[in-house]
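User: I've been going back and forth on whether these two constructs are worth ordering. Before I decide, could you fold them both?

Assistant: Sure. I'll take them in the order you sent them. The first construct and its structure tokens:
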Amino acid sequence: MKVVSVNGVSFCSNKIIDSHVHIGKWGNKEYPISSIDEFVKQPLENGDTVEKMFVSSLECINDKTVNEYIGNRALLSELSANQKFLPLAVAKPNMTNGNTEMLGKLFKEFPHRFIGLKFHPENIGVPANSSIYDNYIAFAQKNSIPCLFHSASTYDVVYTDGSVGKHSELSRPEQIYELAKRHKDTPIIMAHMGGNEGKNAQEAVDVVVQAVEKGDANLFVDISWVNADTSAKSDIVTAIKKLQETSKGDMTHRILFGSDAPLGCFGEYGGDTFKAYSNVVQDVKTAIKEAFPDSAEELIHKIFCKNASDLYIKDLPVPKSLSALAKCGILVILLGVATGVGMLCMAAKKISESK
């Protein structure tokens, strides 16, 4: 494994799975596949390689006239040329009154293509704890896929331009937790770790810890928007510490790297999106390296790659018919060997008797 030094801090180069990425139209801006393609074409400045990106459609999220079937079908056609891009299906239960028939049609037509569902309570205007989501979470459980929820708290957020904003009451961590408790076996990831920093981020982590302690929900967080500047570092470190110290043991497998690319902070470095992405990765790795010098590489591997792989990317089980054939094959080989040995023994006996 290659060792790279960035600003005096040494890192082992790693493979990255980015669990939160988009393409499509957002507001007045269009983000084509080329806006994320550059991140997977070459190693980042610290030597890391982005191996997979989990992508959802901004247009399907944002455009209230685009339904689940049309929006997600269009996403598939966009991503089909690059195997590094894996699709998340945007779910819009507000358009279907909670009926998953349209999503079922999509999954039947394109089996095993979508690796998860993406929900955005803010955009559909429905609180995350509403019963309208229940059929969709049950659908995810039936198809053995996780659910990614936009999450945000209502504490003041100071943006990079100095402006202060508040999030709505639709996707707070405790609302997502309430929904998750009704579907305790379904993995649910809270994107942006609850909002991006300070009380927002820690509220989300506290909810995950509470779910772990009580064993009543299967919650995770991704760190998109949490990782863009120095002030966010302590939130990531605090999150790791809290999840390391639960009464159930180390639960740091519940933190996933996500960037929200090409949205978010990627215009802050002189418009150089590739450098911005590299800096985001570097900021998080530096924070972990400084806070956990003895276990940094293991934590980095988990957060940037293993956790998302374990949660989303599963090896397909060997079909029973194939297993049976394999067993039969082994049995035939063994019988063949036994028969051959037996024939050799008989031949040797006859030769011996003839002498």
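The second construct, handled the same way:
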Amino acid sequence: MTKHYFPVETLRQFAQEVLVKVGVESESAAIIAETLVVGDLREVKSHGIVRLPTYVGRIEAGVMSANAPVKTLMDNGAVALMDANNSFGQVAGHHAMKLAMQKAKDFGCGMVAVKNSNHFGITAYYSMLALEEDMVGIVCTNASPAMAPFRTKTPLLGTNPISFAVPANECPPIVLDMSTTVTARGRIRYAALTGDEIPLGWALDKDGKPTTDPHAALEGSLEAIGGVKGFGLSLIVDILCGILTANTMTGTVKNITDYSGPSKTGHFFMALDIAKFDDVNIFKNRVDEVIKKIKALPSVDGGPVFMLGEIEHNNTQKNLQNGVPLDEEVVQQLNELAKKYGASELKA
């Protein structure tokens, strides 16, 4: 499979230019572009710039607003509720996490929920914002039906990802970013786009049978992590993001590729101010100790022991230096979009 390598700034500028061409305000376009670039830098390709055509498609179809203002519906002490007003999830998410961090400075903990939103990209982007202020970030979002509840075969719950980010001193931060299914549905869409099979154990077809065909998987259901445990986590995320926000009932969030109406995605953001609990440097040194202790343990095969988020951190450093790899099919799709809107094409 042919790959092309692009400097991160080239991808950032490309995404911003396309978004501005379709009517997104420049400040918002910069936020959206950054979340996509972070996804590609960390090689979470399903949530990188490959998403751009779908976002543009939703604006074209009139089911998502390019610039509707994010509104604060409730702001009371350590908690707040925001209405994304059917605009970009990235813009609402960025503002919500920043507000959660400000509240954490005031109260030790800040919690902000968002309703009437859309797909917001890579979940770790938002939890990692807290690292800039020596805070712990906790973020989750609901999504369209992709997982069948335990011992059923009809998709009802989303992949509903959860992310935690914990700062360290010498070591890279601990960053957990996981869907409550074995894999994110975006990775299956990516496999369908590039013509690859998916590993057995990722998904079931519409009859509830294991499949390696990404197209059959998209018509069926994703496997939950740990069986009933993954189902339980997904359900709790849906309650926090959909029920608590009075936004959507379980199973009613629309798929990102469903242009029949607004997505009505919900998000939940939390920041914990470490300084309210302990001396920040002491805490971060102790996290370093934990990381080093784990990495010093003998591995089962003699290979390296990786911490949560370490591979993605290493990918970021590598891709900042060598360029971000994109598959030929993705580059072609993006350049077709650029041509349609009179934007500059991607050239390696």
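Notes on the second construct follow. The two ends are 16 Å apart (CA to CA). The chain has three domains: 1-60+313-348, 68-178+224-296, 182-223.
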